[in-house]
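Thread: "does anyone have the structure for this chain?"

Original post by V.I.:
We have the sequence but no experimental structure in hand. Need at least a predicted one for the grant figures.
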Amino acid sequence: MSDLTAEKRALRRQIRHAVLPADERRRLSEALCAHVMACDAWRRARRIAAYVPLPEEADITPLLREALRTGRLVLPATLREPQPRMVLREVRSMEELRPDAYGIPAPPSENPEPDPREIGLMLLPLIAADRNGRRLGKGAGCYDRWIALHRYTGCRMGIALPGQVLDRVPAGPLDERLDRLATPDGILICIHTDDERGA
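Reply from O.Q.:
Generated one for you, tokens below.
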């Protein structure tokens, strides 16, 4: 195991032990969602790629409902073979979602994949992130590979609750950077130089 891998695993364990009480998570999530819906990236996006939140994550259900209401919602489905791989598909109804390879509600395989150039905003889940746009995910690398494969140039916005924004997050050359961080206190602009950005 490399030093970087070990550092990431240790940080994941540390953050996961600091789960917020449900009522506090709900209150902070409402504030976070309000900030996202008020920002330019949200208003201007032709399509919005989001995700179905897990119980310990910020509850972005209001964002899913609003993006669906305006016909802009795109959600991921993760496939297992030959390695974990993510596809993004259009969503017509939350009732059509079915568990993907990891048990997370996802659009069915018959739903079309939008042109990545139409996705003006991508909301990304995270374990932790820093103000330089470094993001620590769950470890499968699905978002990083999708962004690199499609050379995605839209706005990448991480969704972070208190305790998830750190001074520094370990990252390697294949870890794609965030452009923005949505928090209950507002939207943070990530500052990074070109050579810091993932390959």
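V.I.: this helps a lot. Confidence is low (pLDDT under 50) at residues 195-199.
O.Q.: and The longest strand covers residues 73-79.
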